[in-house]
Amino acid sequence: MKNLRTPQLALALLALALIVAPASLRAEEVKEKPLSKAKEKYDADKDGKLNDAEKAAAKEGAKAKAKETREENLEKYDANKDGKLDKEERAKQKADLQAEHEAEKAERAAKKAAKAAETK
Question: Using an 8 Å Cβ cutoff, are 74 and 83 in contact?
Fold first, then answer.
């Protein structure tokens, strides 16, 4: 019985090594992603990373942008001027966003078609 367990243990260890080794190699190969364009503007020291102060500035910038967007949406869609969007007002906002998205999509398709025609 002892001889039967040794090969099974060896096979189990080999299988484990084959699973773990490639994963550890991939972990070493992982490089840091570059900052997104939105976050690049907050990278004051241009080191490619956001330190705590830069993260705080980015968070405050995001909060300010969200507040500005909320205020713009209320001004544009709050028909009854109650300070909040009701179901109908949200539906109008959603329809406008969908129409905007479709227009942008059509514009991208037109540019792509023009570029394809240009290369022929």
Answer: yes
Same domain, 58 and 88: no
Residues of the domain holding 96 = 84-120
Structure tokens belonging to residue 102: 């479709």
| Helix ranges (DSSP H) in the chain | 2-29, 37-40, 52-77, 87-119
All residue ranges of the chain with pLDDT < 70 are 1-5, 21-32, 120
pLDDT at 44: 87
How far CA 107 is from CA of 96, 97, 103, in Å, comes to 16, 15, 6
pTM of the model: 0.55
The answer to whether residues 38 and 59 touch, using CB atoms and an 8 Å cutoff, is no
Total number of domains constituting the chain: 2
The rounded distance, in Å, linking the Cα atoms of 81 and 14 is 70
Look at the block and give the residue holding tokens 């406008």. Answer: 96
For residues 97-106, b (16+ Cβ closer than 10 Å) or e, as one string?
eeeeeeeeee
* Same-domain pairing of 89 and 119: yes
